[in-house]
Amino acid sequence: MMDDIQDHFSSLLKEQGIEVSAAQLEQFESYYRILVEWNQKMNLTGITERDQVYTKHFYDSLSLAFHLDVKSISTLADIGSGAGFPGIPLKIAFPHIKLTIVDSLNKRIQFLKHVSEQLGLQQVELIHGRAEEVARKLPYRDGFDLVTARAVARMTLLNEFCLPFTRVGGQFAAMKGSDPAEEIKEASRSLKELRGKLKKVHSFTLPVEESARHIVIIDKTAATPAKYPRKPGMAVKSPLL
Ligand SMILES: C[S@@+](CC[C@H](N)C(=O)[O-])C[C@H]1O[C@@H](n2cnc3c(N)ncnc32)[C@H](O)[C@@H]1O
Questions:
Q1: Distance in angstroms (rounded) separating the CA atoms of residues 217 and 212
Q2: Per the CATH hierarchy, to which homologous superfamily does domain 69-220 belong?
């Protein structure tokens, strides 16, 4: 049975053209329960109120699909996914996606393994490793239709982490809170070197809380040059958000 929080969540998604079934809502609810349970023993999120998790994590993760045609992509790599954002909500809402998650913290990968098993998610690959190392290998290098990163690093570093995973003709989407204009300017050289081209910055406000959100969409124009990704520590120093 849908309650007020789930009813609100699914109506907000419907307004954006995304329909979620009762079974998918059950998956979101199980994800919420596992998240708060495991959050008691490891640091996964500062947001634990149920309505806030639905808005600030689930809806926010799915906002990517308001601006990109997620239905037409088949492979998605979520870099620095942490507790699974935006990769897991996107996988629940668009089960056809083949999802690969890369995170350098093994505890979070173990959490995501448990979530995937409990939710019965198929075609989810969970990789414990640093983005700069994983993207050197096939089939990950230049391999994904869409690459995402939410709240992982500034644009200069994100270009180095994410563009090597993006296939030629594919896209990298960076999900940001505050206005990324300054970061984008500072990252123009890395963008060019890693064969990215800024396509668009989508700006919107999160419903209820009304905080600003920005999605930076970058097109991958050519294969990753041989010297990228650089070794850990060689990438341009950039403070984490
Ligand atoms: C602030 S958390 C963000 C998590 C999630 N994307 C979200 O929006 O809630 C950043 C995550 O990036 C991971 N991370 C940081 N550097 C990384 C790297 N070089 N390769 C892979 N993961 C990395 C961290 O382990 C952490 O889980």
A1: 17
A2: Vaccinia Virus protein VP39 (3.40.50.150)
Sequence spans of domains, the chain = 69-220
Question: CA-to-CA distance for 51 and 113, rounded, in angstroms?
Answer: 24
CA atoms within 13 A on the CB side of 78: 25
Question: Is any ligand 1 atom within 6 A of the Cβ of residue 164?
Answer: no
Encode the chain (241 residues) as per-residue pLDDT tens digits: 679 999 999 999 999 999 999 999 999 999 999 999 999 999 999 999 999 999 999 999 999 999 999 999 999 999 999 999 999 999 999 999 999 999 999 999 999 999 999 999 999 999 999 999 999 999 999 999 999 999 999 999 999 999 999 999 999 999 999 899 999 999 999 999 999 999 999 999 988 777 899 999 999 999 999 999 887 666 554 444 3
Q: Is the CB of 141 under 6 A from ligand 1?
A: no
Give the N- to C-terminal CA distance of the chain in Å, as an integer.
38
Annotated ligand binding at 80? The verdict is: yes
Note whether 164 and 194 are within 8 A (CB): yes
CA of 15 to the centre of ligand 1 (A): 30
- For 212, residues 6+ apart whose C-beta sits below 8 A from its C-beta are 177, 178, 179, 203, 204, 205, 206
Handedness of CA 64, 69, 71, 77 (dihedral sign): negative
One-letter identity of residue 140: Y
